[in-house]
Write a structure and sequence with these properties.
The mean pLDDT is 95. The protein is built from 10 helices and 19 strands. The protein has 3 domains: 70 residues, 2-Layer Sandwich (Uridine Diphospho-n-acetylenolpyruvylglucosamine Reductase, domain 2), CATH 3.30.43.10; 111 residues, Uridine Diphospho-n-acetylenolpyruvylglucosamine Reductase, domain 3, CATH 3.30.465.10; 207 residues, Vanillyl-alcohol Oxidase, Chain A, domain 3 (3-Layer(aba) Sandwich), CATH 3.40.462. The relative contact order is 0.14. The strands form 4 sheets. An 8-stranded antiparallel beta sheet has the order 15-12-14-13-17-18-16-19. Strands 5-6-10-8-9 form a 5-stranded antiparallel beta sheet. A hairpin with a 5-residue loop joins strand 8 and strand 9. The chain binds flavin-adenine dinucleotide (FAD). Flavin-adenine dinucleotide binds next to strand 3, helix 4 and strand 10.
């Protein structure tokens, strides 16, 4: 396809067009399953750069796609200018107020590192490498979700460049409908340059992992399901089946295991002991500050190609756990390297702020990740792992945090029809047709 060449001559930051050296590497996202071919890649250094990008896109009939590192990349971006905001890297922490202003280029890991030595915790997810702004704009389920709700619920206000070039803060008083959209579908109404978020005060933060033989998975998961978890405790379970491939380290290659990861904000992990952790082969829980969160799971750090499916569950009876883990142990299930589930409830049932995303009433967030080796057909692999969702069909409820959408899904798979109407009308009100929104 012949692409239009936008006039980006007034942009101060780096601009790469398809014929320029470095374009191929720089247009690539962290998610390697997608080959991005935007009309240009811009490293914006200022709001004026962003305004110039919006004007150039309009003048040449293109749209603007904003991306941090592209962990969530799902399409080729043909017909768009890709903007990266790595230069928007401010972190301003107000320790007394337990809030932080966080720029669009700040990763979760940079924020938790900045908070080392304090008793403050941000609503980050498992990967230190994803950026906080896209996480909160698309709902986000993080380590302190049972205390604060979805990560979007911690957003106090948003610094937004509107499609008409106006730049400034928006909050629940100035525009509650826009804030509802920004807390869940935020990437579709403008370019966010920063957010101000609540931090949770947690002086006795304690976390870690207990590891079990794969065969102990069903009993462990049942015990965890039945344990009286206090709202101060967050738990994730993982069934891991590592392929026997040469690029994996010797200690994990070809191995299967089950793990329980937990983070308590008040140091009370007694609900796990002894019923849940009794059969663990290794168990290490320790006091930590926010900087310890990065090490709680071993999320892959290198760019890679993967696909996956997720679902919200109302309950998890014995038969669901047993069938799921039996599927994961089968030849077909081995396509999935990780079958993970996060315990919901607590503050997730009682959202304090307006948002298009709502997971109240759901009890588990299930996600299944399958790597895509070179030559693999993503549709076939996704079809294979989708079998797990068939097993769970009786206990599945509609909705997802949009950060858990697969590349094949749209916002309508995550939010209600009423929310989709609000997102569309807000886009129309702001004149946001220049902002790429393929998932809508
Ligand atoms: C290893 C791994 C672990 C993960 N763990 C979790 C987890 O625990 N919880 C969770 O909820 N999610 C999790 N995710 C999903 C992750 O939150 C999404 O992939 C998200 O897209 C963040 O990735 P990114 O920072 O690279 O953002 P990108 O993929 O670069 O951006 C995603 C989208 O956000 C929008 N966007 C980005 N920046 C802006 C901006 N400045 N203004 C307006 N719109 C913008 C755009 O629409 C863009 O397409 C994980 C992903 C991976 C790969």
């Amino acid at each position: 396809m012949t692409q239009v060449t936008p006039d980006l001559s007034s942009v101060a930051g780096r601009v790469l067009l398809p014929a320029d050296p470095g374009y191929d590497e720089h247009s690539q996202a962290h998610q390697l399953a997608v080959r991005q071919r935007p009309a240009a890649v811009v490293d914006a250094t200022s709001v004026d750069d962003l305004r110039a990008v919006l004007a150039a896109a309009r003048a040449s009939g293109l749209t603007v796609a904003t991306q941090a590192l592209g962990h969530g990349a799902s399409e080729d971006l043909e017909g768009s200018i890709l903007v990266r905001l790595g230069a928007f890297d401010r972190i301003e922490v107000d320790e007394a107020a337990a809030t932080a202003v966080v720029g669009a280029g700040v990763t979760a890991g940079a924020l938790t590192t900045r908070l080392a030595g304090t008793d403050l915790v941000p609503a980050v997810g498992t990967s230190p490498d994803v950026s906080l702004v896209p996480l909160v704009l698309a709902g986000g389920h993080g380590w302190i979700a049972r205390q604060v709700g979805l990560s979007a619920q911690t957003v106090r206000r948003v610094e937004l460049l509107r499609p008409d070039g106006e730049h400034g803060w928006v909050d629940d008083t100035s525009d509650p409908d826009l804030m509802r959209v920004l807390r869940g579908a935020g990437g579709v109404v403008g370019i966010v340059t920063a957010v101000e978020v609540d931090l949770l005060r947690a002086p006795a933060l304690t976390g870690g992992t207990a590891t079990f033989p794969a065969e102990a998975g069903a009993a462990t998961w049942r015990a965890l399901r039945d344990a009286p978890l206090p709202d101060s405790l967050n738990v994730f379970v993982s069934s891991v089946r590592m392929p026997d491939v040469p690029f994996l380290p010797e200690e994990v290659r070809g191995r299967d295991w089950f793990a329980v990861q937990a983070l308590s904000v008040d140091g009370d992990l007694s609900a796990l002991d002894p019923g849940v952790t009794a059969g663990a082969t290794a168990s290490a829980f320790a006091p930590m500050d926010a900087s310890g969160i990065a090490g709680l799971t071993n999320d892959p750090r290198e760019p890679g190609a993967s696909t996956g499916v997720s679902a919200l569950l109302t309950e998890l009876p014995d038969e669901a756990i047993e069938q799921l883990l039996a599927w994961h142990a089968s030849d077909a299930g081995r396509a999935a390297v990780l079958l993970g589930a996060r315990r919901l409830g607590g503050a997730l049932d009682d959202p304090r702020r307006g948002s298009v995303v709502d997971v109240s009433g759901a009890r588990w967030l299930l996600s299944i990740i399958a790597p895509l080796p070179p030559g693999a057909d993503p549709v076939a692999v996704r079809g294979a792992v989708s079998h797990a969702l068939e097993i769970l069909r009786p206990w599945t409820v509609p909705g997802l945090p949009p950060t858990f959408l697969g590349s094949h899904q749209g916002l309508a798979d995550a939010v209600s029809a009423e929310a989709i109407d609000l997102i569309r009308s807000t886009r129309a009100r702001l004149g946001a047709d220049v902002i790429r929104a393929t998932r809508l």
